[in-house]
Amino acid sequence: STGVRLCGMAVISLTAALLAMAVLPRAGGASEAEILGLFYDSTHGPGWGDSTGWRGDDHPCPTSGSTWYQSSWFGVWCNSTSTANLSLSNNSLSGTLPPDLASLTHLTIIDLHMNPLSGPVPSALAGLTGLQTLRLDRASLTGTIPSQLSSITSLQKLRLNQNYFLSGTVPSEISSLTGLQTLDAYINSLSGTLPPELSSLTRLQQMGLDTNFISGTIPEEVIHMGQLQNLYVSSNSLSGTIPVKLSNLRGLAIVHLFSNHFSGTVPSEFSSVSTLEVLALGGNHLSGLLPSALTSLTRLYALGFGANSFSGSIPERISNLASMRYLRTNSNSLSGTIPAGLFSLTGIQQLDMRGNQLSGSISTQISSLTQLIFLYLNSNRLSGTIPRELALATALQYMLLSTNSLSGTISDIPSGVLKAARFIELSENRLSGTLPLLTSPDLSGIILHNNAVSGTLPDDGTFGNLGRRTTPPRNMSISISNNRVSGTIPPSFVGPIVNLLANGMSLSGTLPTFENTSLATLALARNYLVGGVGALGGQQRLRTLVIASNRFSCEAP
Predict the structure, then answer these.
(1) I need a surface site. Which of 137, 401, 415, 432 has the fewest CB within 10 A?
(2) Within 10 Å of residue 158's Cβ, how many Cβ atoms?
(3) For 331-373, how does the pLDDT look when each residue is reduced to its tens digit (9 = 90+)?
């Protein structure tokens, strides 16, 4: 009977050993090849972009004693005879990640980003206690962020961003990762609140949690994250006021809080963060005056206050922001004139002040903004003429000045602007004169409706080159409705135009043949056009046709 019991024990011991081998990390050269083989099969290795060396007979890391060398297996790096780095980003891996990866206990880097994987982040990865970098971003993973990852106390970079459907909350347990420097989980479906326990991440330099569904407030405990440089929590549902104590983080460089529900005023204490380079607060419910104290931040190159409820004037001391490149104060209730100090910011590339109550004229000093690409001053109360000095703003490509009270003639617009611009919007002003000569090969639109422009449509063929520089050509849009333009529609005028709006004018004659055109929208209502409309029958791309209130012999092709 003893022998039977011993035999039984032997069987049981053998079974236990086999089970242990199935779940415990496997040591030795052949076992690493086997584990990587399982990974290869699970991620559909034959479909990889590059699988050189995989599924061969050789050991992935054959050289004993050598430190950090590249394996003959593509994407594998070794430390002596152990796999230390598995980097297969953007290599067409699919399928799921096997938990067997946790058996590669010497891994310090896993980088599988930009692959069409599926399934969850394996909680078994918590067994990789030496892992320093885990990149599973843009990998189509689902499920939640495993709280078990908090066991990887060596982790320095955790990037799970842009998986879109990674859900659940930000686990408070990751506060145990006290060596973490980068935490990126933006563009996912995370919800819940920001755990105050994250304040334990005292070495964190970047926290990217933007574009999720996170609610609640920013915990004041964040001030303990003394090495934080970049804070990205935009496009969530955060509310409350902006914590004054954020200004205690004297190493902050980038703060993205836009598109949330923050209210109250902007803490003037931010002026003490001399390292600040980007402050983006647009799309909230902030109010009060624009804090003039922030003009002391000489390293600030991007400042976004748009789509809030700020009032008052733009501080004259804005001229102190010598590094400014992108300034957005759009969609507020700002009043007064555009301060002269703004035109000393000679490196500015985007100036967006649309949708306010700014008055006065556009200064001739705008000529100093030689790097300006985007000029958005539409929907204000500006008056006067369009300064000819704009000709010196040679980088200007997008000029939006509509819905103001600008006057003068179209010829006041410098010819240099008309030759280089990509989009010009001057509608709903008091401009007169004839249609400008447009020769820009990059132009995608000119919007002139609701002015007092007169004359006829050009018949010199200049419109034939508009938008032709790009391949395919740009979708040209021209809106000249409700002006005083008369005469016929020359065939050469249509050229590359895709959307033509010319309602409410004095156009006459018959419709051109519209040969070799790509019209998608044609609006010619309330004119004096005659004849038939059969020429429109061959316009297969035409989606919108408005020709009512003319003198056509029939109303439809």
Answers:
(1) 415
(2) 23
(3) 999 999 999 999 999 999 999 999 999 999 999 999 999 999 9
* For the chain, the helix, strand and coil percentages under 3-state DSSP, each to the nearest 5: 25, 25, 55
Q: Tell me how crowded residue 537 is: count the other CB atoms within 10 A of its CB.
A: 12
Write the burial class of residue 287 (CB in 10 Å: 0-12 exposed, 13-18 middle, 19+ buried): middle
Asked if 294 and 269 touch (Cβ cutoff 8 Å), the reply is no
Paired sense of beta strands 333-334 and 359-360, if any: unpaired
Q: Residue 74 CA to chain centroid, in angstroms?
A: 32
- Is residue 171 within 8 A of residue 151, CB to CB? The reply is no
Buried b (16+ CB within 10 A) or exposed e, 93-129: bebebbebbbbbbbbbebbbbbbebeeebbbbbbbbe
CA–CA dist 545, 520 (Å, integer): 8
In sequence order, what are the beta bridge partners of 263? 241, 285
Distance, in Å, from the CA atom of 330 to the CA atom of 356, rounded to the nearest integer, reads 7
DSSP string for residues in 4-31: HHHHHHHHHHHHHHHHHHHHSPPPSHHH
Dist. CA 548–CA 71, nearest whole Å? 73
Cα separation, 520 vs 496, whole angstroms: 11
* Mean pLDDT of the 12-34 span: 45
H or E element that contains 371: none
Mean pLDDT computed over every residue of the chain: 89
| Angle at alpha carbon of residue 220, lines to 217 and 224, rounded to 5° | 135
- The torsion angle over the Cα atoms of residues 463, 468, 473 and 475, rounded to 10 degrees, is -30
- The token pair that represents 357 in the structure block: 């109550």
Q: Is 220 helix (H, G, I), strand (E, B) or coil?
A: helix
- In angstroms, the CA 30 to CA 81 distance is 11
CA distances from 358 to 124, 290, 336, 425, 471 (A): 59, 14, 5, 18, 39
User: pLDDT-derived band of residue 19, with 50, 70 and 90 as boundaries?
Assistant: very low
Tell which phi-psi region holds residue 235, choosing left (phi > 0), alpha (psi between -120 and 50) or beta.
left
- Alpha carbon distance 412, 494 (integer Å): 25
Q: How does DSSP assign 38-56, residue by residue?
A: HHHHHTTGGGSS--TTTTS
Residues in contact with 211: Cβ distance below 8 Å, sequence separation at least 6, in sequence order: 186, 187, 188, 234, 235, 236
Q: Which of the given ranges, 118-132, 415-429, 507-521, has the highest pLDDT on average?
A: 118-132
Determine the 3-state secondary structure of 302 from DSSP: strand
Total residue length of the chain:
557
State the amino acid at position 147 in one-letter form: S
Parallel/antiparallel/unpaired status of strands 76-79 and 82-87: antiparallel
CA dihedral 125, 127, 132, 134 (to 10 degrees): 0
Look up residue 194 and give its two tokens.
């920001």
Asked if 174 and 149 touch (Cβ cutoff 8 Å), the reply is yes
